[in-house]
Amino acid sequence: MISNVVDLASSEDEEHENQTKRKKRTNNTETPVTESPLQSNSNHSLEFRSFWKAGAYDVGSTKSIHEQGQLEHARVHPKFLHSNATSHKWAFGAIAELLDNAVDEVCKGATFVKLDRISNPKDHNPALLFQDNGGGMDPEGLRQCMSLGYSMKAANTIGQYGNGFKTSTMRLGADVIVFTRKSQGSRATQSIGLLSYTFLRKTGQDDVIVPMIDFEISGDRTQPIMYSSLDDWSNNLRNILEWSPFTSDQELLQQFEDIGPHGTKIIVYNLWLNDDGLLELDFDHDEEDIRLRDEVNRDKSLKKRDRLLESHISYQIRFSLRAYVSILYLRKFKDFNIILRGKPVLQHHIVDDLKYLEQITYRPQLGKASKEVTVRAEIGFIKEAPHLRVSGFNIYHKNRLIRPFWKLINDHTSYGSGVVGVLEANFIEPAHDKQDFERSTLFLRLEMRLKQMCNDFWKSHCHLIGNYTVVNQQKKLSIRPFDENAANLQRELSADQPVIGLSANMQQGLHLDQPVVGLAANVQSLSNGNTVLGEPSNMSRNMSSVQPSSGLSAVSDVVPCFL
To answer: One of this protein's Pfam families, by short name (predicted)?
Structure first.
């Protein structure tokens, strides 16, 4: 409950005095340790501006003192903010997390999210802006957002762990400030929160302290909300002004002018640098895009024969944010736009780029207690096949891309080249960074089944792109009783080349005198040289009907002739 409402003007005199002190410090700044083309104030910047080095500092003695009458609690040291953010190996994955939060607001009426480069008013360095017109957050909602592991999102939304905001913002920059406004019934509020790794480091904090201030909106009048004392509220305001890009309370309030009646604005600043002292994110190469600088530089060594690859989406998503966001969501939005640097992102459906498209039904085995699930995979050749060797499955979870162009076929063979698929797998759980899945039994079964799909599609369709040779070989396969010891696999396979597309269960039961390419994942019946594919669950009972040391022959393989 709101205990008091204080006048914002009561802190103006103190703020004028603070601005004078800041100007004096700015005029006496020292040379920053990290050489960088960016403007820097050593009193308000970290020693290391590279993300992967920012956590390398000594932790001092505990400052917090346990007060009598209060329960002791476990502290979250500021260093954890950095170590927690290392779950994002890829900066675009962190950006995707913040876009997910905006997409989750579609159910509350959001029609856009803007992502752009802005200038930090204090040092004129680039900062990253995320802004949406969703439902916004009330004071309690902002505190939940700033807390670790707290989530009240519905089961059908993308976010679920309550950790994405912290990991993503801290992965992109050292500091973030949030402006949010919410209207609920007759009450409207707006709040400001500062999560600053720089503030915590420079002031030697041993607990994560997040300065926040709230306002109540009554008509045209905005009044600060005070929960405890005027001193506490004023102290929060002073810390925000000291460590944020804004120098006055008027500048803070101006940030709400373009938010509207509800919505959220996030500004990530003190962006991380690469090892060369340049911004990790490249805003200059394309004024309508944001690129990963190191990936762009690495691509300059691309050979001429690989230039065709440059134009393909599977290659562009490595360094182009616009390309990555275009395939980030499986289904097209009806009344929602992602606006990147002033231009809407056109959603791109990967299946639209495929030829000889087929749909395959897959029923994962979820267990007796779970409801049966049926999913549909779409698979085909890329339009550039066979001239472009791109392959892999794109796996989505709840409409969100988790694994783009997941390689399921050995790169050292042309077998399966050009085969691309799309599948939404809501029956498995993504990892915390949403760039991979948890390595569960369901995931491993899915991987096996997708490999089989790619192999089967290649064998039955490769003649359509004019690159195959059918070879009928008499291969003697000695089948022994089923052996559950997977360690025997290497001893059972006497082949100079890798066996591609062979399931783990089938490998255990076969002794191969010759290498096999493209053997089906499991065999339901073997007669007259015909191979019939089945589900992995059928393998055990199918194998039990095969007698030991039976001689089999006429396994027909498709051997590609282009390399």
So the answer is: HATPase_c_3
Please, what is the Cα angle at 134 between 131 and 138, to 5 degrees?
100
- Phi, psi angles (nearest 5°) of residue 237: -60, -45
Q: What is the pLDDT of residues 208-224, one digit of tens each?
A: 889 999 999 988 888 99
Distance in angstroms (rounded) separating the CA atoms of residues 179 and 194: 9
CA distance 174 to 556: 59
284 plus 417 within the same structural domain: no
| Residue where the block lists tokens 């992965």 | 171
* Both tokens assigned to 289: 């895009």
Q: What is the pLDDT of residues 315-350, one digit of tens each?
A: 999 999 999 999 999 999 999 999 999 999 999 999
Domain boundary among 291, 319, 338: 291
Asked if residue 225 and residue 144 are part of one domain, the reply reads yes
Distance, in Å, from the CA atom of 96 to the CA atom of 86, rounded to the nearest integer, reads 15
Does residue 298 form part of some domain? no
Q: Is the dihedral of CA 464, 467, 471, 477 positive or negative?
A: negative
DSSP string, 443-475: HHHHHHHHHHHHHHHHHHHGGGGT--EEEEE--
Domain that holds residue 102: 78-291
Q: What's the CA gap between 122 and 395, in Å, rounded?
A: 43
What is the amino acid identity at position 465? I
- The CATH number of residue 231's host domain is 3.30.565
Specify whether 287 is located in the same domain as 353: no
- The Cα–Cα gap between 157 and 11 comes to 41
Model pLDDT for residues 96-110, shown as the tens digit of each residue: 999 999 999 999 999
Distance CA(83)–CA(64), nearest Å, equals: 21
User: What are the structure tokens assigned to 215, written together?
Assistant: 């306002």
- How many other β-carbons are positioned within 10 Å of the β-carbon of residue 456? 19
Q: Are residues 353 and 260 part of one domain?
A: no
Strands 173-184 and 126-132: unpaired
Q: 385-396: b or e for each residue (b if 16 or more CB lie within 10 Å)?
A: bbebbbbbbbbb
Q: What CA–CA distance (Å, rounded) separates 503 from 230?
A: 68
Question: pTM of the entire structure?
Answer: 0.75
Measured CA to CA, the distance from residue 444 to residue 498 in angstroms comes to 19
Instruction: Select from 65, 87, 62, 89 the least CA-distant residue to 77.
Output: 62
Spell out where 159-301 has E strands: 173-184, 187-196, 212-218, 221-226, 263-271, 281-282, 291-292
Q: Report the alpha-carbon distance of residue 107 to residue 146 in Å, rounded.
A: 22
In a domain, 455, yes or no: yes
Same domain, 226 and 94: yes
In total, how many domains does the chain have? 2
Strand-pair partners of 267: 129, 177
